[in-house]
Write a structure and sequence with these properties.
seven-stranded mixed sheet, OB fold (Dihydrolipoamide Acetyltransferase, E2P), Rossmann fold, binds iron/sulfur cluster, binds FE3-S4 cluster, alpha/beta, pyruvate-formate lyase- activating enzyme, 3 domains, globular, binds S-adenosyl-L-homocysteine
């Protein structure tokens, strides 16, 4: 079965397969080289930074070239069938390198490791070690086991592990934007989704360690952090070992956002992903109140039809979702909204698909990630419902959704032309080092000519002059500068 994923956004799961460059210093050397490659969501990329940190503490250095590595790790994703296929194809490419260098250790990490467990060792003969997302602290020990001649597996999931005390090594970083994991796992049971099985139970990370990480990043010159979780609105931290008092000391996501925003007004705060059933007005008011919490919400709808949403076990219906969008527009009028959409879920009729198109018209999303349904073994949908929409119909519906989204993205960008935007300079544009690129508050990519007065990491005011379907093009206009450094 072929699976299709189309995204109109630049930084997303299509970053799959990036090889990661490790920055930073390490004290102990063991002369062994690590190569790590990541697939999947931002959380997986953030996890690779934790893995790198753990191994650098054990004396590893890193390489961009898997052929010269002693340890080759691939951090995998199971979300759709083609995500897994891509990993298997990549493993095949490692075979000849391993044949030339039999001492090379090949490790599979992440969601596919968790889903397939020791079966991986049977299926893929070149794999020496299989490690699930909650077992990365055990990596040095597992590598030792492989050195001693045994293939090793640790796929234990934990109810507590958040790696709160591990300082991630920033990988392939632009030095300006970084991710911070604020929670792990997921307690929802969306019927199509493999994540609860691969990532385990939801748990929130100590907020003070999150604030510390944000502060350290700011001091190192970073100017934007994205707080990551599968469902950030259910973030919850109850102070332990403290006497229960009448005061409610629980730290909610809204409070956490405010704590991170308070690190410095020049530190932008973003977050992902919000769940429509859980996003509260309290969060919306926090965003509205703080200039440095970005006016941008990723609010996956999945489907615009209430019956399909019920089959998906999303626990909201079309009316509820529309009300949440109305609340966002009311409380944060300039908010950018993006979404995820699945086409051709089990038993979805043509009329139900039309409901997805019509909810898109209602919201007019700034961006969307759009997918054809891909049945995942072990999920509720795989057990309960037939994957009965033919592939060509899934694809045709996907094409319709994609072309509507293209139109809306373009429309949204056109609205930004003629306005000024506060943009954080992230680097040079992909096409030319005569242009800078960065994002505005609503997360739109903005490209503008380099001005010698400014540097990467500075905030500038940019006037939008024109746009393509994915990028706003403009020029720097600020006289009173907000310099980020
Ligand atoms: N926690 C996020 C989603 C994480 S997975 C949320 O609840 O919204 C990212 C996206 O992948 C999902 O929003 C969904 O649109 C898509 N997805 C997940 N499982 C899928 C499947 N089996 N087939 C196709 N798309 C899927
Ligand atoms: Fe998957 Fe649903 Fe959890 Fe998102 S909220 S990770 S879609 S189970
Ligand atoms: Fe993929 Fe796992 Fe993320 S399945 S989307 S890498 S949580």
């Amino acid at each position: 079965m072929i699976e299709t994923q189309i995204s109109l956004k630049e930084h997303d799961e299509s970053r799959q397969g990036e090889a990661l460059l490790l920055e930073g210093k390490h004290d102990r050397q063991n002369n062994r080289k690590l190569y790590i490659e990541s697939y999947g969501c931002q959380m997986n990329f953030a996890d690779s930074e934790i893995v790198a940190s753990i191994l650098m503490d054990n004396g590893f250095e890193t390489t961009h070239d898997y052929k010269s590595a002693d340890v080759v790790f691939i951090n995998t994703c199971s979300i759709r069938e083609n995500a897994e296929q891509r990993v298997r194809n990549r493993l095949k490419e490692f075979e000849s390198a391993k044949a030339k260098n039999p001492g090379m250790i090949v490790g599979v990490l992440g969601c596919m490791a968790e889903r397939l467990k020791s079966k991986f060792l049977e299926e893929e003969k070149l794999v020496d070690v299989v490690v699930g997302p909650d077992a990365y602290r055990d990596l040095p020990n597992l590598i030792n086991k492989v050195d001693d001649g045994t293939r090793a597996v640790n796929v234990l999931l934990s109810r507590e592990e958040t790696y709160a005390d591990i300082s991630p090594v920033r990988l392939n970083s632009n030095g300006v934007t970084a991710f911070i994991s604020i929670m792990r796992g997921c307690d929802n049971m969306c019927s199509f989704c493999v994540v609860p099985f691969t990532r385990g139970r939801e748990r929130s990370r100590d907020p003070y360690s999150i604030v510390k990480e944000a502060r350290d990043l700011f001091e190192a010159g970073y100017r934007e952090v994205t707080l990551l979780g599968q469902n950030v609105d259910s973030y919850k931290w109850d102070p332990k070992d403290e006497e229960t008092s009448s005061i409610d000391n629980t730290i909610t996501f809204a409070k956490l956002l405010e704590m991170v925003a308070a690190v410095n007004p020049l530190l932008r705060v973003r977050f992902s992903t919000s769940h429509p059933k859980d996003i509260t007005n309290e969060v919306l008011y926090s965003i509205a109140k703080h200039e440095n919490i970005c006016n941008y919400i990723h609010l996956p709808v999945q489907s615009g039809n209430s019956r399909v949403l019920e089959l998906m076990n999303r626990t909201y219906d079309r009316a509820w979702y529309m009300e949440r969008v109305d609340a966002i527009r009311r409380i944060i009028p300039t908010c950018g909204i993006s979404t995820d959409i699945i086409t051709g879920f089990c038993s979805e009729t043509e009329e139900e698909h039309q409901d997805t198109l019509s909810i898109m018209d209602y919201v007019q999303y700034d961006y969307a990630y759009m997918f054809a349904y891909s049945e995942r073994p072990g999920t509720l949908a795989a057990k309960r419902y037939a994957d009965d929409i033919p592939e060509e119909i899934k694809k045709r519906r996907l094409t319709e959704v994609v072309s509507k989204q293209r139109m809306h993205s373009h429309l949204r960008l056109k609205e930004q032309v003629g306005k000024t935007h506060k943009v954080l300079i992230e680097g040079y544009s992909k096409r030319s080092d005569k242009d800078y690129c960065g994002r505005n508050d609503q997360n739109a990519m903005v490209v503008f000519p380099v001005d010698q007065q400014f540097n990467i990491g500075d905030y500038v005011t940019v006037l939008g002059e024109s746009c393509t379907s994915a990028t706003l093009i403009g020029k720097i206009v600020n006289s009173e500068t907000t310099v980020g450094a």
